[in-house]
Known about the structure:
- With 156 residues, this protein is an alpha+beta fold.
- The protein has a single domain, classed as Aminopeptidase, CATH 3.40.630.
- The chain has 5 helices and 7 strands; from the N terminus they run βαααβββαβαββ.
- It has a 7-stranded mixed β-sheet, with helices on both faces.
Amino acid sequence: MTVSVRQLLPDDWRTLRDIRLAALLDAPYAFASSYELTLKRSEQEWRTWPARGVVFGAFVSGEPVGMVGATPVVSDPETVHLIAMWVAPGVRGTGVADNLIDSVVEWAEGRGSRSVSLEVATGNDRAAAVYLRNGFTYSNEPPSIPDTVTMRRSLS
Length: 156
C-alpha cells in the first residue's frame, strides 16, 4: 500500500469537506465540533479552513483516507497546534497517521517552530499511542477543550 500525503489547497475544499464529515461521523467524541454544525459550513469557509494554518490529506490509490490540520498558536508563535487528525478505519495501523504527523512536523519546522502541541480526547488511547510513538509526551498545560489532555513534541 502506497500512501501519499499532500497539502489540501482551497480548490480541494470538497475533498476536505468529505474527509472531515467522515471523521465526525466515525469518531464524534474525538473532535471539538459536530457533524451537524460542520455540515453547514459554506464553500468559502471550507476554502479558508484552518484560517491561519494548513491541512494535509492522506491518499491511498487516489482515495482520501485521512487528514490533519496545523495552525500556529497565537499566544506562542514558536508552537504549531496539530488539529483534526483522523485516519479512516480501514487503514488504521498502516502508517497513515505517522505520515500525516510527519507532514505537520515538517511544516512546523519550515516555519521555524520549536514545538508541536495537540489535545487528544481523554480515553482515546489509540490516538494517544500514535502520538507517543511519534515523539509527543504528555504535558501539564491546561487543555482548551473539555475532556482532553495535552501533548507536546519538541522540534530540533
